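Hey, I was hoping to borrow your eyes for a little while. I've been puzzling over a protein and I'd love to understand its fold better. The fold is given in discrete form, as structure tokens running alongside the sequence. I'd be grateful if you could look everything over and explain what you see. No rush at all, and the record is pasted right below.
>
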Amino acid sequence: MAETSAFREAVGGWANGGPGERARELAGRLGVRTAVLLEGLSDLAAVETLAARQGRDLAAEGVCVVQMAGAMNVGRYALTLGPPGLGLRLTGLCDIRERPFYERGFARAGAPADAVFACSADLEDELVRALGTARVEELVHAEGDDRAWQTFLRQPAQLGRPRPQQLRRFLGTKKGRKIRYGHLLVEALGPGQVPAPLTHLFASL
């Protein structure tokens, strides 16, 4: 795990203009063959949680999941990790509105665009719809966030909005909340509830 974190850090440095020797060294040592490009830390939390639930050791499979701190960075990461850089197979998960960034980035790196799996709005939307709003509100209450949730609902901008949209917005209103719930929402999924984009992503690995 420590070496996987070191590899991600080295890749980030390389993608942002630093040297690539450390990333190459660690990729060889870890046997990395596939890189999964994610937009941010909440997506990383969800993907890693689902892998654990499915009993998959992605590192042992030669898969490294990398968060890029924003979809607009996908071009640099695809060039770093894909054929022009480390020569890894690329795949990714993104919000539907960010898919064009991924497709252009993958094309520049010589990677197939059909390796990108897009959520209908974003991953939180997929998870909220999979679980249902009542179940998500149960989790909010169990996490001790009920008071914050009720305060949020009284904001004028939230009045009359559909509950799924309110929940998605609430998850992003406090630093770290999306990451925490990225884990919790996946943990709460029952049989047959894994959203299609995640199912397709994992089937491709």
Remarks:
- The chain has eleven helices and four strands.
- Strands lie at 34-38, 63-67, 89-95, 116-119.
